[in-house]
Amino acid sequence: MKLKFTKMHGAGNDFVVIDAINQQIDFSAAQWQALADRRFGVGADQMLVVEKSTMPGCDFRYRIFNNDGGEVEQCGNGARAFAKFVAEKGLTDRRSIAVETMAGIISPRLEDDGSVTVDMGAPVLEPALVPFDTEGLQGQPEGRDTLWPLMLELAGEKETVLVSVLSMGNPHAVQVVPDADTAPVELTGPLIEQHAHFPNRVNAGFMQIVDRRHIRLRVFERGAGETLACGTGACAAAVAGIRRGLLDSPVRVDARGGQLSIAWAGEGQPVYLTGPAVTVFEGEISL
Ligand SMILES: N[C@@H](CCC[C@H](N)C(=O)O)C(=O)O
């Protein structure tokens, strides 16, 4: 079949966006991988699918596939691209929309300066719901947060890293590092992503605190490897830092591909993610 798509990015986290309202989509994991392949396909960290929603009050349904072919619950940078896509394609004339995802309803809003703000919903802090299996682990209370010691085995050597575990609809484990540039993202990211305590795997965040309203962040994403930015990772890092008493809202997040801003008023409150969404080109591919 011939598939029409739009290539987009949000702070360098890149996407193939597909209108599945006007096209029939039913791809296998292998076909998603082929589309995401940077040499033999279009290339993307994630594929975003735009569908009609059957949920009352929702404008669209948003589905997300990592470049390993797996469908996942949430993608923050993708949510901004999604909002820009439906506006640019004339699928809505509203600047603020309600979008159904696997993880609940999110609400992106187009800003006058071209950026997009997304109400990502409240973070989930209960380990079992992340899901995170705490059996055999000792939580260490620090401030209002609980840090969990994760044991990693690196070339026969055992190392323990302290991570804040939470969900933004998708699972995150965030650690504080002295310097994001030298953080062992490639080395320990895959070990954390596949750690036995995370039954659904996890996104591994490495956060350098610059000051109380500014962090630098790298994320080794579940099912995609390190990306130039991770929107839900930025939300998770800001929430973890605020809960630990290290950060104040709003938090500026410098990712390798651009800048994001996160606002959070505290437990039970939604997290707001603001940042860019850019259309790169339109294309058609035979699959
Ligand atoms: N890049 C994303 C997150 C995409 C999904 C993630 N890799 C997962 O598997 O949960 C973002 O901007 O949030």
UniProtKB/TrEMBL annotation:
Species classification: Bacteria, Pseudomonadati, Pseudomonadota, Betaproteobacteria, Burkholderiales
GO MF annotations, alphabetized: diaminopimelate epimerase activity
> A single Pfam family, by name?
DAP_epimerase
Query: What InterPro entries does the annotation carry?
Result: DAP_epimerase_AS (IPR018510), DAP_epimerase_DapF (IPR001653)
Q: Which UniProt keywords apply?
A: Amino-acid biosynthesis, Cytoplasm, Isomerase, Lysine biosynthesis
State what protein this is by name.
Diaminopimelate epimerase
Cellular component, GO annotation: cytosol
Which reaction does this chain catalyze? (2S,6S)-2,6-diaminopimelate = meso-2,6-diaminopimelate
Q: Indicate where this protein resides in the cell.
A: Cytoplasm
Q: In which pathway does it act?
A: Amino-acid biosynthesis; L-lysine biosynthesis via DAP pathway; DL-2,6-diaminopimelate from LL-2,6-diaminopimelate: step 1/1
**Where, in this chain's numbering, is substrate bound?**
N13, Q46, N66, G76, N77, N170, N203, E221, R222, G231, T232
Q: Which gene encodes it?
A: dapF
EC number(s) in its UniProt entry?
Answer: 5.1.1.7
Annotated source species: Pseudoduganella buxea
